[in-house]
Amino acid sequence: MTRPGGRATPTSGPAVARAAVIALSGLLGAGALAAPPLQPSVGETLYRRGLLPSAKPVQATREAGATLRGADAACVNCHRRSGLGSTEGRITIPPIAGPYLFIARGKSLEQQGVPFVDTERVNHEAYTDESLARAIREGVGANGKTLNYLMPRYQIDDAAMAELIGYLKDLKVSPSPGASTSVLHFATIITPDADPVKRRGMLAVMNQYFVDKNNAMARTKAPTLYSSHTMMFRVERRWQLHVWELTGAPATWEAQLRKYLVSQPVFAVISGLGGSNWEPVHRFCEAQSLPCLFPNVEAPVGHDSDFYSVYFSRGVLLETQLIARELAETREPVHSLVQVFRAGDVGEQAARALQAARSDAGQQVVNRVLKAHAASKDLAAALREVGPTDALVLWLRPGDLSALEKVPPPTSRVWISGEMGGLEQAPLPAGWREVTRMAYPVDLPGRRVVRVDYALSWFRMRKIPLLAQQVQADTYLACGLLSETLNHIVDAFVRDYLIERVEMALDHRILTGYYPRLTLAPGQRFASKGGYIVRFSDPQGSRVAPLGDWITP
Amino acid sequence: MRPRILGRLGAALTCAAGVLLAVATAASVLRATVSYQTPAVMLVRADGKSVSLPHELDDGRPVLLNFIFTTCSSICPLTSRTLEEFQQKLGREAAKVHMMSISIDPEQDTPARLTEYARKFHAGPEWQYYTGTVAASVAAQKAFDVYRGEKMSHTPVTLLRSTPGKPWLRIEGFITPDELVDDYQKLLASP
Predict the structure, then answer these.
(1) Whole-prediction pTM
(2) Residues of chain B found within 8 Å of residue A115, distances taken between Cβ atoms
């Protein structure tokens, strides 16, 4: 089938091609999925990156003459990756995925299987290929009226225009895989090196949350009127959780995940638990265009420019920034930065990141690596010969911190990781407390108590054992955010749209658990941006005091 | 299904209101003369220096002030582009204006990110960007009546003042660079 303009369709769209690969893999086995990612279509490149088929940047002007080029002029900036539009202030940017443009006025979108989105123009004229091309080039809508000042006028020739319009027609508004008419399938991913206690805690929360969600939905079936209670559960699909447990070496995880996804497509991945290496999971989510929301990961990978994976914070990598900032601002010169960590733990990544940050500043860095199962006497050996003008950073777990009891505290300044050490519960011996500061990438205990108590009360009422408080509170928060976002989505179960709505929903959130604030945006993938440097207040106990304000390094 | 229909209806009404507002916004630029009390907050300039907001505003030059965030993908690129052209159109005269852009997403917008953003819009030395604590940014936003809660709720507002102590010209909506130059010159010419 060929559309006006000579563009082959519909099999040229990336989503269609991806679906075809997935279908093929079902026949050939998971190994067939190892094919390299497909090249984006011409229309997609123009839509997302503002590049013409010639690879030159597209040019556009606004009514008043301002010129835009390339990525700055890309449609995705306003209409978003989903093509379902956005809202900024009092400005509503309409959806431009095919059906919203081409369905005639007066016809119900719902009757034609097109989901409602709160950005849609309920009364616009239907576009044709020709009138849409005029809108894109001249800023004149299907009804002959001038479009909003925000909409640029593009210089696009006929061939590229046909590609762009074809791409808009291909943008999917039907439910993504994993969203059926009665069930929303979600997965949670657990790597084999994840802490087994945290795993139990996380799954206990998720299983109960899903049970509650489904029970509430059953109770509120077809109410006569909305109330605030029923609004919370108006997405009338049962939630089903699939636990994807990975085994073996990290090099095999992506293949395992692809196999899981083929056998049970899911709408999104929610929460999850990693050990020292989350990269294969992150890569899988990006490659499969699968939202991966708020996993419990101490050393998240990826960048703000990625799309599908969002995290509560950068974890130990944020701590390295907090410590690096302290070291950079210290008045007394630091002779050597000595870092101690265990091979294979996330401390290794943190140490590498801090080394990179300080080496750039000309700092001498010495890394002392303990074997994964080394005894505490090896820890004592690693702490020898640290002088008073050195800085010692310990990327260690509670077991190792307890073992410091047998080691005299050094004369140097010391930093420990709150994320790895257990925050204020870190079992740091009394003698070490006076010289030690802790990187603390969450809100202070007294300030977060109300927000976290909300989750803890829910655990108590549901008789969920408290096994790993932060992991469980974060998991509960992730489930709550998913639920809230799905209420905004109504029935537009499009994966890209889920991510876009999570970005928006997070800003409204008051109950943010361990974190003082959570915000995301296009180009922001780590929701909490800062932390404190704290010190223990007493020789024993868990009272900590901040050594300054909240820092956003 | 009743809940679905009601959900769609409610959402559609919300949407229709949004569309009307969008049209109204695009069609008009609103101007008002307003006096503001500047809060004594400290901000961090993109060069990393901690500065007082009143001192930055009252350095003797005419001031153009707006509020942005660097990951904003719709409104801010346009308003920043307008300021860039305003700067270009003023030519040498631009050095006499203090242009100030304060982040409404200060935790994300570090001095380094603001510097990169300023470079993208070819900001000259007279155009400076500011971040700081969330509390300081919110105080500044509230003082100039641009605080709308979440960053995604912000609206395009440009503020102009000829000299310290004078009231501000508040411009709401998408003003063009030519209109902004015109407003600026009229403001300077007024007694």
Answers:
(1) 0.88
(2) none
